[in-house]
Amino acid sequence: MAVSRRQFMKVSAAGLAASSVGALGFGGAGDALAAGVRPYKLERATETRNTCPYCSVSCGVLIYSMGDGSKNAKSSVIHIEGDPDNPVNRGTLCPRGAAALDFVKSPQRLKYPMHRKPGSDKFERVTWDFAMDRIATLMKEDRDKNFIAKNRDGVTVNRWTSTGFFGTSAQTNEAGYLVYKVIRATGLLPLENQARI
Ligand code: SF4
Fold first, then answer.
1. 79 CA to middle of ligand 1, Å?
2. pLDDT value at position 147?
3. Atom 4 (ligand 1) nearest CA
4. Domain count, the chain
5. Which carries the bigger pLDDT value, residue 40 or residue 49?
């Protein structure tokens, strides 16, 4: 019979309680106590596998959420823990990964592209289309102004050093490879990126 992780935790908790009481000589009390064991708190939660977003170690995480996403039961993350089946971390997490729930729930968390207009003292939410167009326009302007085709000895170098690019740790190796190829194709040298699984 296949036993899920949740069933295993539930059965283990009940079994441990029953055998402990039984070992003290209260045979009949074991069953009563086992029946009263609080249900596994994540039993009704939805379990989603993912990868910790912080560093290139790429630890696997299990994200538990409640709610079905409908208007009346908005889906919300309630617990995050290490994935015991992930070969990278085998259920463990460093303090940063272990505190990932605070990252998800943080009121300071950036969820949308924000833009501060020249002269303004505040950021405003903008669309992704606006953000992408703005970034592309500024990159092109800077590249047109500062691209170096040849060095002072006349050797072709095709480099652009006045802009930098940050990739992300929350992407796959394949996406990291594409970032590298696209950015290097422009001649951009300052690039920071992390390889993932
Ligand atoms: S849990 Fe820690 S070590 Fe693992 S990926 Fe996250 S930040 Fe890196």
1. 16
2. 97
3. 59
4. 3
5. 49
* Enclosing domain of residue 27: 5-36
What is the reported pTM? 0.63
Q: Are residue 118 and residue 172 in the same domain, yes or no?
A: yes
Claim to verify: residue 25 and residue 75 sit in the same structural domain: no
Distance 12 CA to ligand 1 centre (A): 29
Helix/strand/coil (H/E/C) assignment for every residue in 49-118: EEECCCCCCCCEEEEEEECCCCCCCCCEEEEEEECCCCCCCCCCCCHHHHCHHHHHHCCCCCCCCEECCC
Together in a domain, 13 and 79 = no
Residues with CB under 6 A from ligand 1: 52, 54-55, 57-59, 89, 93-94, 96-97
d(CA 167, CA 190) in angstroms, rounded, equals: 11
Same domain assignment for residues 137 and 170:
yes
pLDDT in tens, 136-160: 999 999 999 999 999 999 999 999 9
**pLDDT at residue 27, rounded to an integer:** 61
- Predicted confidence at residue 58, as pLDDT, reads 86
